[in-house]
Amino acid sequence: xxxxxxxxxxxxxxxxxxxxxxxxxxxxxxxxxxxxxxxxxxxxxxxxxxxxxxxxxxxxxxxxxxxxxxxxxxxxxxxxxxxxxxxxxxxxxxxxxxxxxxxxxxxxxxxxxxxxxxxxxxxxxxxxxxxxxxxxxxxxxxxxxxxxxxxxxxxxxxxxxxxxxxxxxxxxxxxxxxxxxxxxxxxxxxxxxxxxxxxxxxxxxxxxxxxxxxxxxxxxxxxxxxxxxxxxxxxxxxxxxxxxxxxxxxxxxxxxxxxxxxxxxxxxxxxxxxxxxxxxxxxxxxxxxxxxxxxxxxxxxxxxxxxxxxxxxxxxxxxxxxxxxxxxxxxxxxxxxxxxxxxxxxxxxxxxxxxxxxxxxxxxxxxxxxxxxxxxxxxxxxxxxxxxxxxxxxxxxxxxxxxxxxxxxxxxxxxxxxxxxxxxxxxxxx
Length: 430
Prior knowledge:
This protein has 430 residues and is of the alpha+beta class. The protein folds into 2 domains: 5-136 and 193-399, no CATH class; 141-188 and 402-427, no CATH class. It is 40% helix and 19% strand. The chain is built from 14 helices and 12 strands. A hairpin with a 3-residue loop joins strand 10 (364-365) and strand 11 (369-370). The chain is globular, with a radius of gyration of 24 Å.
């Protein structure tokens, strides 16, 4: 059975006056995320990405106080609870140095494993939508396939293959790999094929997104976002602070937090305006797990992981629970400019569905039109809701999503029969 990639998100309030001190601790982690003395993420074989974010004290849309808080978010292979246990077992004292600045963290010495685990489980929150580039591909598999490609390339460089057919070269590679001590027991990677998800995925090519949107237009005429705030601009100091955490490696992180609008009680338009938050995010979660689980998010192929997480729920009425904020986190390839450009060009309708009920979002029509298509207004909006990620770790910082897919295809090509043309195509992957 394939190992599923899961998300862990923790949310803790920060003790009064400790925000700055905690920030300095996280800055030290960020200087060497893989090998720092507090949480050496590089030693954990199941962690793809991890981040710490400090959310400053703020006010909600009804002027209620939201205290400063700390977010820990990670993408892992397997059960998040097992991931927590591994962190506690191997980095307990380091966790203590970080979370001692959070309210309610155990203070008795020594702090036991059970106390830490109880605290973290209490502060776990669920993602409403969670996207994984390729379900079933583990950190261990990624490193193995990267090493496999490098080893084969070294082997190919040692001989002139110009007089050999593509099938002869492939056979030589297969013989070499299967006799290599590190790869002699190599098998095809297991595909992620949950039975009922696979049925949906097989029919995903027939999913007419444009047609669905077209048909929805007449039913969504009252779902417009016209705040007349598209001219808002992020402060230059804020942009400089954000860019200081970007373009350090081949990948980038993105963290943003917004305030979703609320619908009034017995206000039909207001209540329906919550559809994107209460219906679209769970629906998007289903689609990302069934349709877009093979390295392609509606033709955007540079995203490794992404999540939408509602935060700070409050009961507005006896039966209505509304999040005061929504957190979005992603790990992607390339620059922020290219990242946003790809989204705007390919899935502006998706951005509108998931973000249009945020305060200050560019004006939309019928919920899914305009909005992000106003490129400059959208990019300004993104910078106003984006927040710094104080510490960020990647298990494979120099491998793009395209690299990962190519490496997996190389491994797959070592098994089974091939035609001469298929072998030529496979060899072009090196």
